[in-house]
Amino acid sequence: MYVAVVGVGSPATNYDLIVDTGSSNTWVGASKSYTPTSTSQQTSDSVSVTESGSTGFSGTEYTDQVTLASGLVVSGQSIGVASTAKGFKDVDGILGLGPVDLTVGTLSPDTSSAIPTVVDNLFSQGSIPGHECSVYFEPITDSSGIQQNGQITFGGTDSSKFTGEITYAPITTTSPASNYWGVDASFSYGSGSDSTTILSATAGIVDSGTTLLPLATDAFNSFQKATGGVKDSATGLLSITSQQFGNMKSLYVTISDTVFELTPNALIWPRSLNSIIGGTAGSIYLIVTDNGSNSGSGLDFILGQKFMERFYTVFDTANQRVGFATTPFTDATSN
């Protein structure tokens, strides 16, 4: 997971928050307790958010000063303060960078109210020039799994972090992907005469809070057949041999008529981190997983962290679109 250190209050208490474009509530208290200060104000609302699976939190909504970086401070940001939290280990909560509509229904009794996100408030308070944020990740190379290798740009893009042009895709109209940073895309394995369609044009989301690359069950089955991967009981991931890896082809993701190539190296879990997922040293595991539903569900793929480690991503609220660009790490062989 990717974590940002975010200050809350004045003087600020620093919290380690997951950078999550698939969630929009910003909240603290999963590990380190919330410390009220002179800028803290408890609201009349309770708050409850269920993330994927069994993770989530419930507690009380506050407003407080939030410091994202030196000179980048949000006044009166609405934040959740957890009294209970499930599924969050060694982190304090979430920095929610998803669309604001995801917050509707999370408050009580104000169930119909949306909670402006940190990006919304930075823009409305005049702290950033554009109503957008951009996310840059690099593949992890440290065997501990802990390193500084990411950047969030609030209010625009950082041209030093990407190469070429940014391809923009409008938010999909297909529900439920349309509620998130959802785009339409198709997937194929291999190129030219050796190309195999994995997933025809369909809707999915871009979510930095998801580690891997889940595909609809039928698409996953096609990918498994094409690669020869075998389900590994210890990790739950597909495993391939060194020979299979040597013969492996790229997975091509087409978004807005632009093809983004995930090379064979980009499709494997970092081998230096095998022990973290319960894997065996030297084994080769694939990052493509089964999302549990056949295609046509309205959310047939998730472009998670491993995709975002290879492509710069722009989340443009003002124009309701998501942008993608290559980086110096798109073709890296670090895994």
From TrEMBL:
**One Gene Ontology MF term:** aspartic-type endopeptidase activity
Residues of the Peptidase A1 domain: 2-325
One GO-annotated biological process of the protein: proteolysis
Which residues are annotated as active site? D20, D207
* CDD domains per the UniProt record, alphabetical: pepsin_like
Pfam families assigned: Asp
Where in this chain does the entry annotate a coiled-coil region?
Answer: none
Tell me the first and last residues of the signal peptide.
none
Q: Where is the composition biased (Low complexity)?
A: 34-52
Which keywords, in A-to-Z order, does the entry hold? Aspartyl protease, Hydrolase, Protease
Q: Where is this region: Disordered?
A: 34-56
Q: Which family does it belong to?
A: Belongs to the peptidase A1 family.
Please report the name of this protein according to its UniProt entry: Peptidase A1 domain-containing protein
